[in-house]
Amino acid sequence: MFRTHTCGELRMADVNTEVTLAGWVQRIRDLGAMTFIDLRDRYGITQLVVDEETNELVTTKLTELGREFVIQAKGTVRERSSKNSNIETGEIEIALSEIQILNPAELPPFTIQDNTDGGDDLRMKYRYLDLRRNTVRENLILRAKMAHAVRSYLNDKKFIETETPVLIKSTPEGARDFIVPSRMNEGEFYALPQSPQVFKQLLMIAGFDRYYQIVKCFRDEDLRADRQPEFTQIDCEMAFVEQKDVLETFEGLTKFLFKETLNLEIKEFPWMPYSEAMEKYGSDKPDIRFEMLINDISETVKGKGFGVFDSAEFIGAICAPNCATYSRKQLDQLTNWVKRPQIGAKGLVYVKCNDDGSFKSSVDKFYSQDDLKQWADAVGAKPHDLILVMSGDRDKTLSALGELRLEMGTQLELRDKNIFKPLWVVDFPLLEWNEETQRFHAMHHPFTAPKPEDVHLLDTDPGKVRANAYDLVINGVEIGGGSVRIYNSELQATMFDKLGFTTEEAQTQFGFLMNAFKYGAPPHAGIAFGFDRLVSMFAGLDSIRDVIAFPKNNSGRDVMIDSPSPVAQEQLDELSLKLNIKEKE
Ligand code: ASP
After folding, report:
1. Does residue 528 line the site of ligand 1, with CB under 6 A?
2. Any idea what the CATH number is for the domain that residue 91 is in?
3. Which of 395, 411, 427 is the endpoint of a domain?
4. Are residues 121 and 98 in the same domain?
5. Region of residue 44 (phi > 0: left; psi between -120 and 50: alpha; otherwise: beta)
6. Starting from the edge strand earliest in sequence, which strands make up the sheet with 160-161, in order?
7. Residue 455 to residues 38, 70, 495: CA-CA distances in angstroms?
8. Range of the domain at 162
9. Minimal-distance CA residue to ligand 1 atom 7
10. Ligand 1 pocket mutation pick from 159, 171, 194, 195 by most atoms within 8 angstroms of CB
11. Pocket residue to mutate for ligand 1, from 159, 194, 197, most atoms within 8 A of Cβ
C-alpha cells in the first residue's frame, strides 16, 4: 500500500499507530539533534520528525532531500510537544522509521505557499505548481462542488443532461467565431460553438422537455479580467413554459447553490425592467447592494444661463451620503476619474450640502442658494451630503453616472463582497441600433421572441419592441441571461429580415432551424449562466482566471503549453491552407 493515511488525516486518536504517508516536502528544518519535515498533499500537512534514535539510513536520506521532493514516509504517530493549532494535524507528528524518495524535484521557481512570491506570468507558466497551493486548489474544489450541486438540482427537476457538438457551423451570434479547417472537406470550416443555442432549441423540438449541460463555449473576443476565449456555461432549455417558470427554476438553482456552498439563505430576487435599471443605475447590470440612485434633474437645472446644462439633452445627479467634506483634491480626483477615456465625461459639477443648510457648488456663478436647494430636494440630499452632476447625451450620461455611482460605492465601502444581492433584469429591448453597421442587431440573439403585445411595433418602430429576455445579475455582475424563444418559422423569418439578412442568407445559415419549426415546435424558453463568473463570485474573487485550472492570459495565450503555435507546412498542405502573413520588418 502506498499510503495508509493522507497528510490531513491523523489526530490524537491515532497516537502509537504505525502509518505510511506520501506527499511533497514543503519544508525541512534541521535543528541539529532533530529534523522536522512538513509533508504536504491535497488534504493537509503532517509533521515528520527525525531524531537521534532514528536509524542511520533515514538520516542519510535526509541529506538528499529538498523542497517539493515526492517521498513516502513510514513511522509512528506521537503527540507533539509543541502543538500547532493552525493546522488540523497540529497535535501529532510522525516519528520516522523509514523514508523513500519517490521522485526528486528541482527547486521550484516560486514558493508553494498561500502567499507566494511568484508573479502572475511565472505562476501561469508553471500552473501545475501553482495548483499545488491551497488557495488556488480550494477555488477549484469550490468549482467542483458547485458543478455537483448544479447537476443534483437540475437532475432532481428532471432536466436531461445532453452533450451537443463542439465542431459546428459558423453563424453570426454576436462575437467572432473560432474556426477549424476541415481536412476532409477542402476549403470548408467548422466553428466552435459560442453557445449550444440552436441545438438546445432542437432538443425541445425533439421533445426532451428539459435540457441542461455544463458546457464549454468559445468566443474570439478581446480579453478582460472576466473573459476567457473558452469559458463554461450552465446551459438550459425548457419546453411548455413561460418566462416566470424559467425565472423560478433558476432562482431556485441560485438559492440552492448559495445554501449548499456558502450556507447562505437569499431572499426572493426582485425583478427590475431594463428601462428602470438604465434610468436609475445607468447600467443593465445594477449593483443593488447600495442605493445612491441616479436622478434626472434636467427640468430643475435648466434655464439659469449655464450653457453646458441648457444645451444638454440630459442632466443627471447622484447623491453621495456624508461626502460634503470632500476636499478640493478629492473632487479634482473624481473629475479626472470621470474624464478618463473609459468613462469619457466632459466634466463633473458638484454641490456640497453644508451642515448649516447652505450650499457650496462648482457652479455658484449661475445658481443661487434657492436654486441649489431645489437640486438637493430633487435628489433627496441632506446636510453633509455631496451631489454629483453630469450632463450631455442621455444614454452616455446615464452610463457615466452609473460608473461614478459604482466608484463612489467602492470609495464608501458599500460594496461588501460577503453580501449578495441578486436580481432579475427583465424586458430587454429586442433590437439594438448599431451606428457602425447602420442596422439593428439582436440585443440577446436572433432566436429571442418579441413580447406579444409589442409585435405590432416590429414594422413601425423596431427599436421600441421589448423581448421576454432576462438577465440574472448579482452585485453588478451579469451572471446569466436567456429568453423566451421564437418557435414559429414565419416569425423567425421576419426576425432575420429585421436583422438585415436576405432570405437566402437566412436560409443557408438557419434554414435547418426554420424548417424544424415546421415539424411541431413547442413553445420554449431557456437561460445560460456563466459558470466561471458564478464560481469566482462565490469565491470572492475578481477574476475568473482564478477558478479555471488552466486559463489563458490576456493575449489569449496558454503560456504553459505555449499555445497558439505555428503548425508544420505538411499540416497546412493537408488542409489546403496557405498562410498570407506579411513579413515583420
Ligand atoms: N445562448 C444564450 C447565451 O449564450 C443564452 C440563452 O439564451 O439561453 O447567452
Report:
1. yes
2. 2.40.50.140
3. 411
4. no
5. left
6. 160-161, 210-218, 230-239, 524-530, 477-484, 469-474, 422-426, 271-273
7. 69, 67, 11
8. 116-192+221-234+530-575
9. 482
10. 195
11. 197
Q: Is the CB of 213 under 6 A from ligand 1?
A: no
pLDDT in tens, the chain (585 residues): 899 999 999 999 999 999 999 999 999 999 888 899 999 999 999 999 998 766 777 777 888 999 999 999 999 999 999 999 999 999 999 999 999 999 999 999 999 998 888 888 999 999 999 999 999 999 999 999 999 999 999 999 999 999 999 999 987 657 899 999 999 999 999 999 999 999 999 999 999 999 999 999 999 988 776 789 999 999 999 999 999 999 999 999 999 999 999 999 999 999 999 999 999 999 999 999 999 999 999 999 999 999 999 999 999 999 999 999 999 999 999 999 999 999 999 999 999 999 999 999 999 999 999 999 999 999 999 999 999 999 999 999 999 999 999 999 999 999 999 999 999 999 999 999 988 888 899 999 999 999 999 999 999 999 999 999 999 999 999 999 999 999 999 999 999 999 999 999 999 999 999 999 999 999 999 999 999 999 999 999 989 999 999 999 988 999 999 999 999 999 999 999 999 887 655
Whether 243 is in a domain gets the answer no
Residue nearest atom 4 of ligand 1, based on CA coordinates: 195
What amino acid occupies position 202? L
What is the rounded CA–CA span in Å between residue 483 and residue 527? 6
Q: What are phi and psi of 249, to 5 degrees?
A: -65, -40
197 Cβ closer than 6 Å to some ligand 1 atom: yes
Of ligand 1's listed atoms, the one at least distance from the Cα of 469 is: 7
- Closest C-alpha to ligand 1, atom 8: 527
Model confidence, pTM: 0.94
Domain shared by 124 and 167, yes or no:
yes
